[in-house]
Design goal:
The chain is mainly beta. It contains two helices and 24 strands.
Length: about 375
């Protein structure tokens, strides 16, 4: 009888252990009562991960409103940009106003920067596919998660309130067989007053890797009409452009499922294009404030195992210095005709809904004689 009871107790303990290991937890990644002092402030705060065992992130649930936050980004860092609880991590450092600046300046990360998640325009929760997770902490290079919030206005702060915008993460201690990562394609450049313009960027995948894109996110400010992302495979007349995702950036900016099963491998190129209409009487540049513009295409992917893309940011000089036509490896005649068109719902505005700039047109592809490439540190 005693042996029988011992077996029952052992089985019960094992069941409890398995249940505990499979259980999902939540992790609050929130601003610790921040107080923005300027419109377009970028504030950061860091969260140290468990170095003894990895954490697997399986979902991102926003805890924010677009009334307060222009956008939110979650970075993985080997070392955060500051030891302060909150620091100013944007280009808007207000260098001439140090006496009134509450937080000290610093980069988002001092080392090991990688983008994990991005949110804007009251986007909904993002859940990863089964057996796919972001792996952080433990022996990975991601020792900290850093939350970055770009503040849109000061109303709540002028009323004496503080801010706890951020993300609630769903996590698990259970290892996943597929590891998630994010690749970002972004441009520099500017657009002339009263003009329709395309911002384009493309990079070759040089690493020996096989990526499976499963979600994408588009980001622009007020002038963006449509952002599109593509896998480009092959050369010359045999080149194929396969759409990864296409969406109006005026819609909630969460990660949306890709429309087709696309695999990206060494030798392929990844390309993105943003169509914008500048209805204003001033030149608009790519920049960090709400009055500037951005052309960003985020590709979320998974790999078997945990070896992710090392060079995960692809940039171009943008217009007027760079267009696809400047890159001899790209056959612009193979670009899908709908690359510059706003898609129908659900990726475009509903019928009868106004579109910023009022243009539903295809952009004639631009060619410019000047060719220039460079990389720089961006604040997204």
């Amino acid at each position: 009888m005693t042996n029988f009871l011992s077996v029952i107790i052992s089985l019960s303990s094992l069941i409890l252990l398995i249940t505990a290991n499979d259980a999902s937890n939540t992790m609050d990644i929130l601003m610790p009562d921040a107080r923005a002092e300027h419109v377009d402030d970028y504030l950061c705060t860091a969260f140290k991960m468990n170095e003894n065992q990895p954490t697997y992130i399986t979902a991102f649930n926003p805890s924010a409103t677009s009334k307060d936050a222009h956008h939110i980004l979650l970075f993985g860092c080997s070392e955060p940009g500051s030891d302060d609880e909150i620091w100013n991590c944007g280009e808007m450092s207000h260098a001439n106003d140090h006496s009134k600046q509450k937080y000290r300046n610093g980069p988002t990360c001092k080392s090991g920067t990688t983008i994990i998640y991005a949110w804007a325009l009251d986007a909904d929760k993002t859940e990863l596919p089964e057996d796919v997770a972001f792996k952080v902490g433990g022996s990975t290079s991601i020792k900290y998660l850093v939350l970055q919030v770009h503040y849109a206005n000061l109303e709540k702060f002028e009323a004496g309130e503080t801010d706890r915008s951020g993300l609630v993460l769903t996590t698990s201690p259970k290892p996943s067989s597929k590891t998630a990562g994010v690749m970002l394609l972004a441009t520099d450049g500017y657009m002339d007053p009263h003009s329709l313009e395309v911002f384009e960027v493309a990079c070759e995948i040089e690493q020996d890797i096989v990526m499976h894109p499963f979600a994408f996110r588009t980001h622009a400010h007020k002038l963006g009409l449509v952002n599109s992302g593509y896998r480009v495979r092959g050369d010359g007349d045999d080149q194929e452009w396969t759409e990864i995702g296409r969406r109006s950036p005026q819609l909630p900016q969460m990660f949306y499922p890709t429309g087709s099963d696309v695999t990206i491998k060494q030798g392929d190129r990844v390309a993105a294009v943003c169509t914008m209409f500048n209805s204003q009487s001033r030149t608009v540049e790519i920049g960090s404030t709400g009055n500037d513009e951005m052309c960003n295409f985020y590709m979320m992917y998974w790999v078997d195992g945990d070896r992710l893309l090392e060079d995960d940011v692809c940039t171009s000089a943008g217009p007027p210095s760079y267009y696809f036509a400047h890159d001899r490896s790209l056959n612009i005649d193979k670009i899908p005709a709908d690359a510059f068109r706003i898609p129908p719902p659900p990726n475009g505005p509903a019928p009868g809904e106004p579109v910023q700039g009022g243009h539903h047109m295809m952009m004639q592809h631009k060619t410019k004689p000047h060719r220039r490439y460079y990389r720089q540190q961006y604040v997204f």
